[in-house]
Amino acid sequence: MTAIEISEPGGPEVLRPVEVTVPVPGHGEILIRVAYAGVNRPDALQRAGLYAPPPTASPLPGLEASGWVAAVGPGVTKWQEGDRVTALLPGGGYAEYAVTPEDHALPVPEGIGLKEAACLPETCYTVWSNVMLRGGLRAGERFLVHGGASGIGTTAIQMARALGARVFATAGSPEKCAACEALGAEKAVNYHEEDFVKVMKAEGGAHVILDMVGGDYIQRNVKALADEGRLVQIAFLKGSKAELNFAEVMMRRLTITGSTLRPQSDLAKARYARHLAKHVWPMVERGTLRPVIDSEFALVDAAKAHHRIESSGHIGKIVLKVA
To answer: Which part of the chain is the Enoyl reductase (ER) domain (predicted)?
Structure first.
């Protein structure tokens, strides 16, 4: 099969098409004939040598894909050959075939195609597990998501709004801010022109903040939280170290937490999948949550897709067309 390998750590140019053996599904796994693969920032970090895959995962990049079940491994009970699925992958999505545990796949929601479906797993797993489960966001609370025009951000805005939260976002241009507000954000803050801390304080503070920026945003996020607010960290585009006065955390009863999805156990990811099937897939089928797709590239043009995601000019998701 054709796949995209990382020839060596480096920039997008190190991604190159190769011919490799089709993987064989093991016990409890399914083989997916990939139609589309989602492109995510962790893929770019892996390409740069900053985010190693787990020892048992494929070294090929790609954490989500949609397509058809091509084969099932021993013990599989949920799927049959030919089923349309979208799935979280341990790796290997930039290829014509990929394997994943059967419990990490979900049916393609009614009303959308395989292209949109490929954009759901990574963002929905991440947002639900961090904002709803870890952050405990409830209806009526104020929610702030940084990077509101990203794949994570556009998903978080719609999901939080569908659950009845008041949604705020940050973004880096008027176009991106307008996109956030069109998706349901009450206000999108252009961080080049406004201070999100002042904006959130004027509203009474955020009950939950989802942040992938880190660096000096960590201290500012603490200032922007309401008493008993929760800061959930999922990435560090500006660095993972910050100086913080924990007396404020104690006095205001704040919670600082976070997670990374890929290293979590198969059982944890299966639990998230059950949550998505029950709570999120109905949103998709009702049309209250839809993937925002920025651009599409051919599989062999994966390097161009990485240039696009690293330019930070995109709004929503980037996908690779495989089949």
So the answer is: 10-320
